[in-house]
Each structure stands twice: as C-alpha cells, then as structure tokens.
Amino acid sequence: MELPKAIVWRIIRAMDLAYLVLRLHPNSALVQDGWFRSFRENKPVDRSGRAIPWLTYPFINFIESRLTQDLRVFEYGCGNSTIWFSKRVSEMISLEHDSSWAQRISPQLPSNSKIIVRDLSDGYVEEISKHGLFDIVIIDGRMRLECGHQSLNSLSPNGVVIWDDSNLSDFNEGYSFFSRYGFRELSFYGMVPAIFISSQTSILYRNNNCLGI
Fold first, then answer.
1. 213 domain-assigned
2. What pTM was computed for the model?
3. Which residues contact 205 (CB under 8 A, 6 or more apart)?
4. What is the pLDDT of residues 65-76, one digit of tens each?
5. Number of domains in the chain
6. Do 72 and 130 fall within a single domain?
7. What's the confidence (pLDDT) of residue 175?
8. Is residue 51 part of a domain?
9. What is the 3-state secondary structure (H, E, C) of 89-154?
10. Are 58 and 189 in contact (CB under 8 A)?
11. Is the dihedral of CA 34, 107, 197, 184 positive or negative?
C-alpha cells in the first residue's frame, strides 16, 4: 500500500534525513538558502531560523537588495512574508481572511506593519482602496484575479505587483489584464522553502518602477 505524501514527509522530517545531506554538502545552495532548516521545521525560514517569504528563492534573492525604507506595501494574504517585508520597507499592510492565522502572525510584526482581517464576502477585495497608494502590491491570498483587478487603482505611478504561483494557468487572465495597461512580467522560477515542488513568482512592472527594473 502506498503511503500518502503528507505521511512520507512527516516520516522524513522525523528521521531528519535531510541532516545527512547537509553534513555531506555544507556549501550547497540548499544549505546556504536555509532550505534544509525550513524543511525540517515545515515553515519558510532561512538557515538561521528567521522568517522569509514562501516565495521562490530566485525572487527573494533578486528583490531583497531593491527594497528601501520609503516603500509602502500592501499584501493580500499574511504570513512569514509579512514579517520579512515589514523589516525592509516603510509601511506594510496585510489583508487576511483567517482570523486565527492573523493572530499567530501579528505578535511577530514591528510597529510599521499591521494585519487587517476581512471576510472574503465582506470587503476583502476592496479593502486596499481604503489605504491610499502603494509602491508594491503582493497577490498571494484568495480571490487573486479579483484582487489583481482591484489593485491597479491603488498602485503608485512607479508601483509594481508581485504575483505568486504565476506559473498556474488559472491566473493567465490576471496577467493579461495588467499587460493591457502596459505592464511587463519578470518571472523567477525555482524552489521554495520547506517543500520539494518548484514554483514561480512574477513581478509585473512598468517603466520607471520603484525596483529599478
């Protein structure tokens, strides 16, 4: 009988087999980026245990040096990304539909960041319009197509959109929508923390954008 994948991963984590590979290849990218630790702890962290976004490693490596303390960020869907971004920008507002998850993340945030909880059927998509213009909007929660459409009017003139799981065909209409308004797509495909499956994170941007692309 074949074991479910979730059980297999729990067994591997419990036996700490990844530690053997770490000892054999201490200079591998998986060690340097912290993938082994994130796999062991089953959450997105770096090799020192600090929170990192659950986005692709190529994207994280690209954007980290481009973030500045004058940027305002709005995020659909909170998590370790909220913690990571908030330490690198001026203001971070994250929108979450799951109140229990928001309560777990909120105590870890600095004073320049907050999480707003909205039910998916009660103003979730439209919440962004209440908070002015943002330099970065992160689409990584529920109702992504609707959130993408709504975010356009809340972008600053040099604003960009970060869209996670952009390799999924379900979101093609969203990318086409931004393309019609002059946005181009820069995609980063590769591994993500904690799991074996590769994914893609994309930046949708125009000329003279805040990231200097």
1. no
2. 0.85
3. 160, 161, 183, 184, 186, 211, 213
4. 999 999 999 999
5. 2
6. yes
7. 83
8. no
9. CCEEEEEECCHHHHHHHHHHCCCCEEEEECCCCCCCHHHHHHCCCEEEEEECCCCHHHHHHHHHHH
10. yes
11. negative
